């Protein structure tokens, strides 16, 4: 997205003054621009429903990665991140010397090992921290990554001779090892800058954990890290060597002393860690502790401020948008029954909502059903989502004890790629067999009719019908039969019915059905004219089209 196209609410200098660490950041976004930035870029074209099965399966497989429906909590998080980054830089202004005072304080602590022994106290911190707590699959990490992609990770201030790391995101190690956490930090810095070797320098040395933490603070100040995101914070929940307490105290120091904002992301288990001592609990609530629960199955409610409008729930907004991406050939209406079934088998967990929708479509295409049904939701859930049955059963029960027992479990990776690969292969074999059974004219007729202006979504059934009805006829006769059917009133009615399930398009212009002997009177670039010429010259129409350069020759070089 081009940052120059985004709406700027006001002059950044009016809010934060002359601070290069802030003024070089992208503009502050308004709500409309945030939605535009976060929304998935995947486009849906109704005619794609009549592509071959393998190609449609590939399109469906994009949904888990490319579909994103911005919700209220996503907009709230973007605003908080925007504030945290800029506010944290206020007390690290290069122009007034605050940044240098932070650096001196970090080096002093490395030498003195005692914050109270500072000869020169650092400026008062303007940083805050925040925690995001939610079950696995609720979209915490995905949303954070989308928000961060708006910002350049590194900004080089050539005139000032420094590099600014706008954000740094690291994961807590599964073994809760502080040394591994430090190593993850150094590695992330090396990857962001591209020309440093901190990981090798500090992890291969004999530095103890405290010394490594101090080096982290120096690096964070030296490269003006704007936001530190710690993901999978629940992994710190071990008593081994007091690991959680040490690292939480260090995070508090980064916020309070180094003025570096921190976001901690984790499952509900992380709440116990963050509340173990009052300082960390207070700090993690700097901009609030966001609790991300699964979407609730709530129906739209009347808007009290208007007479005829409804307030739509997040569940309805999410599923309404996702439902538009139906690549089955018989798109269904999203009824209350289908939506209720969908919720029952996903409990509103966004990751599962999208993946079940994908798996159901792939299954419907592969077995030839070409339609989403409640029965298919159940079948795919039972066969493909077995790893999450215990978690979803607990959520359905409404029993707090059962929910607490499973709330910290990671949603197992639904192997959608493997499922896609298996069904793509089956679909490819099925499509290949179908086309082989239909004879050599299938692809040629599809291409010709599309070139004549007929929508791809309407022609395939007629082509298949004609090939089955007249298996021994030549292309010319087959094309005449299909055109007569397509221009008949019955076909026109079916076309209008199809339009009701797809976005509006320009109205078709009516055609007068020509007899074969009249084809030679059409324009010279009309396919029917080529058929007439081929018949008169007693040559194959394919060769005539090729010699006239109307067909792409893959052996010829493409000129630029």
UniProtKB/TrEMBL annotation:
Protein origin, superkingdom: Bacteria
Gene Ontology MF annotations: ATP hydrolysis activity
Location of the AAA+ ATPase domain: 126-296
CDD domains referenced in this protein's UniProt entry, alphabetically: AAA
Cited SUPFAM superfamilies: P-loop containing nucleoside triphosphate hydrolases (SSF52540)
UniProt name for this protein: ATPase
Classification lineage: Bacteria, Pseudomonadati, Pseudomonadota, Gammaproteobacteria, Moraxellales
